[in-house]
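Quick one, tokens below:
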């Protein structure tokens, strides 16, 4: 079974997807980490984005490895968020990463999280969830995570939201048949319960 969880930055995707995967014994796929790894590689050594995406050996798990190097922390830096969002507009890069994601999702049970899982990567996913939340609340959550002022995050977030929703290829939008879940004012546990219930109903 594949559970697709999409939505904008700070809607709670990663935390929720990770927790749902743990509760159900599924494997968690953080597709954003792949775009971040490519963004980091481009910031560090430049080159043609599509070639970097094709050549970079990305391993996801407890730690994120890029060509064997542990980049788990490095890919979370704000400048890497921006680089990832920028490189994610490139169709050749997307094709490379979507192929890698589909190969992973071909076997076993997964909770996959990103921007285009339900629309492009796994449109046949048994459950598709689109997580949203009020922009101010999303910025507050991310600011607490990163230990930086919420105003800075809000500005960067608005830029990235605009880039992600307006890009030509695979823009961020709810997939057909997805369940929209507004996480504003909900605790993580409430959201996780809801997704787990939806998954149980789809499996039955
Ligand atoms: O953690 P956060 O939600 O802020 O971002 P992320 O999921 O790590 O993704 C970083 C960037 O990669 C996003 O801003 C998107 O531009 C891009 N991305 C994408 O285009 N498609 C995906 N499936 C996942 C991420």
């Amino acid at each position: 079974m594949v559970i697709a969880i999409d939505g904008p930055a700070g809607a709670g995707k990663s935390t929720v997807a990770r927790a749902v995967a743990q509760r159900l014994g599924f494997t968690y796929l953080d597709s954003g980490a792949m775009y971040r790894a490519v963004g980091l590689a481009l910031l560090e050594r430049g080159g043609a984005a599509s070639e970097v995406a094709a050549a970079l050996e990305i391993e996801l798990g407890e730690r994120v490895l890029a060509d064997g190097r542990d980049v788990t922390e490095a890919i979370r830096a704000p400048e890497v968020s921006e680089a990832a969002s920028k490189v994610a507009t490139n169709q050749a890069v997307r094709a490379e990463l979507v192929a890698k994601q589909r190969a992973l999702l071909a076997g076993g049970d997964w909770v996959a999280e990103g921007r285009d899982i339900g629309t492009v990567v796994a449109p046949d996913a048994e459950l598709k969830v689109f997580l949203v939340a009020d922009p101010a609340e999303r910025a507050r959550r991310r600011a607490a995570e990163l230990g930086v002022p919420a105003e800075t995050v809000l500005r960067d977030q608005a830029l990235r939201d605009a880039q992600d929703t307006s890009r030509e290829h695979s823009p961020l939008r709810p997939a057909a048949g997805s369940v929209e879940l507004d996480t504003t004012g909900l605790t993580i546990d409430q959201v996780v319960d809801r997704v787990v219930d939806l998954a149980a109903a789809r499996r039955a």
